[in-house]
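Recall that a protein's primary structure is simply its ordered list of amino acids. Everything else, from secondary elements to tertiary packing, is in principle encoded there. The following example makes that idea concrete.
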Amino acid sequence: MVAPDTSAAGVKPLQSLRVLDLTVALAGPVSTLLLGGLGAEVIKIDAPGGSDIARENPPYIGRDGLNYGTQRAGETSISVLDRHRNKKSITLDLKSAEGRGLFADMARQADVIVENFSAGTAERLGISYAEMAKVNPDLIYVSISAMGNSRAYGEIKAMDIIIQALSGVMEVNGFADGPPCRVGFPLADLLSSHYAVIGVLSALVHRNNGGGGQHVKVAMLDSLASILAVEHFDLAGEGHVLRTGNHHERLAPFGVFATRDGHMAIAAPADGWTRALFEAMGMPEMAADPRFATRGARARNSPQLTAVIEGWSKGLDAQTAVRRLVEKGVSAAMVRTPQQVFADPEIRGRGAVVRLDHPCIPDTVNTAAPGVPIRFSACAAQYDKPAPMLGEDNEAIYRGLLGLSAEELADYRRRGVI
């Protein structure tokens, strides 16, 4: 729907795609963020005055720097500056008949609509897939929900922590003698957003093969349940402890070990790797110990093996311990902080993490943000445009795309339609 830029420096894989973004919070906005980073024209649609609840997320940024308190005039949420990169922003009242008419006009010229409304909202507004497919049969309409909009879960209001609880992920995360533990970042939101992008790309291929448009549905709960099944927890015997903490007895030695000044991770399940570990520890004779000589024996004696390894590692600083292991061919690494990861020149150089740049962010604030961790040989992808202010692109979209006159635009603005 968008004329492609064929200049070598400007080529992006999805730059001919136009996406109407009706999402809020995290799962939806991250999916459209990624589509924008891959080159799609993403038009973020808010109600007049702003409807994305992420706009209220602290911390806020303004001329005076970061503010974790009450939002002040001229300040913007860091969440918005992150999730709205590579998007255009317009305002539109979808509760009004005229607003829905303008939206239908945009849908006729769009490839994709992405929404994560609560159940029944799109139908009440008259912008459901069934309605939009009448306007544009080739439209790919993506719906991201918490639990598949099923009545099976009653009236539960779902957030990422609720989905983690329902999915079983919490039950397998943490230590055996502790409570279920939340994964420390919004895993359900982020995983479902990526599945949504996979859905968009798959539907595009289907459409390009003559299949037409379709409705793509992704649920946060389904997304987590799908990865939970990788470990086949349903085969665990009765009374089997699911939470294994920092170690995995079936693969011992495999886990996180304390050092004198931090922690390191070791993965040496194969017999040869375990022998190399013992050599690095200066204890090659342990390879002949019947408790540790085979994988089965190590699994049965995992606590004892862990104690021996940690007795050695606690006498060394993490860097020295890791170096000795790596020199012997053992898979090992230091446990790094997020700040250390963000400062890693390799990760920065590949664009996986980028600086969050925006005119409203003072030079004194150096904030890391997700990049596009995909490298292409014949095109490029990255978040290279700062988040727009609310309604910044009203003029360009309504006049340029829909052909409204200045008088019509002013009238819609005066009456609160946009």
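The two ends are 23 Å apart (CA to CA). The chain has 16 helices and 14 strands.
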